[in-house]
Amino acid sequence: MKKSLMALGTALILGGTASAQKVTFEEYDLDNGLHVVLHQDNSAPVVITSVMYHVGAKDEQPDRTGFAHFFEHLLFEGTKNIERGEWFKLVSSNGGQNNANTTDDRTYYYEVFPSNNLELALWMESERLMHPVINQIGVDTQNEVVKEEKRLRSDNQPYGNLIKAVKQNMFKVHPYRWTTIGEMEHLDAATLEEFQAFNKKFYIPNNAVLVVAGQFEKADAKKWIKEYFGSIQKGTPVTRQKYEEAPITESFKATWEDPNIQIPMMVTCYRTPSMKTRDARVLDMISSYLSDGKSSKLYKKLVDDQKMALQIGAFNYSQEDYGMYLIYGLPMGQTTSETLVSEIDTEIAKLQNELISEKDYQKLQNKFENQYVNSNASVEGIADNLATYYLLYGDINLINTEIEIYRSITREEIKEVANKYLKPNQRMVLDYIPAKEKTQN
């Protein structure tokens, strides 16, 4: 009884905190189509200026992959009014920090400054948009930087090409079939004119959202936004081809060899719907139920109790157009990949045929309440969420309401979605194995 009361108390505390954290914001459009979002938070004397562009790896050509990620680096090279090599010096000398990241669906740039440097931050982001210098020396420099990143994070990292191995087998026509970092030979073959054309097509105000979050005066922010961004010309609207993958109706196998590993990895993967769907949120809960933490079903059974796996995991790889649901494991001792798959299937079958317990369901609710609170616990997190919900989900107020979707998911829905997407005939089984040594003649 005491444990039940404690769990109830935790749930009420988390629920109350989540409700109290309503994010307020103002949004409007400039004449050139740039969407602006303002969120005031006076709890600390800092301000975040971020711009998210609706361009990612899926906007590339099959023989020119890696462009969006390349631009994540290239657009720090300099502008008409910020000399090459001066961007980071300008930020750090004014007490700030900045970074950027790229996915298959978008590219995100942001600066964190003391609140008295908002005008500088806005000017710098407007410079990146209006006056980027894209020349051969910058392209050649960043080409080497990206190659080194690929070597460190993928090519020389154990299991570093797992997502690449999965994607190229799960997608046949959609651009999700290649990785965000792309292929280096594509970047090597690209001309300067191709990079300039990519910038002109996608880095335009009507393909972006600007978020200002933190301590600032709205009147000042609006004045500087108009001054620095208002004169930038609207670009030709981006039109995207729609790609539809044929449903997977029969299980298939694939193999990938990795020279950096000694222990094989077993992977099963199911294609799932867009992250914007309710089903995608249910799959988030299912992955948490199966493998989030040492008390999760798969971890407790296969790692702790039966000692059949060194590691086990399940996650919903959600994206704007499609998602992938991956389950992976490292077999231990004499356990085969086939045995591991069979044991995992047994746990999935339980999800498909039985309702999870009320205790496990409440545990899931508490976890997602906690994740919601943490995602909006910092001004940086709020800025990122505001941009993402506006640009990719088409509903910026999800920053306040998405938790209600998770709260409303029922045990019956979890069972239903497991049956809908996690059937054995709708998946790939990937053997991610050590590379075979080549015999010398």
TrEMBL record:
- Which residue range or ranges hold the Peptidase M16 C-terminal domain? 190-367
Q: Which residues form the Peptidase M16 N-terminal domain?
A: 36-177
One Pfam family here: Peptidase_M16_C
Keywords on this record? Hydrolase, Metalloprotease, Protease, Signal, Zinc
| Domain of life where this protein originates | Bacteria
Where in the sequence is the signal peptide annotated? 1-20
Q: Which family does it belong to?
A: Belongs to the peptidase M16 family.
Q: How is this protein named in the record?
A: M16 family metallopeptidase
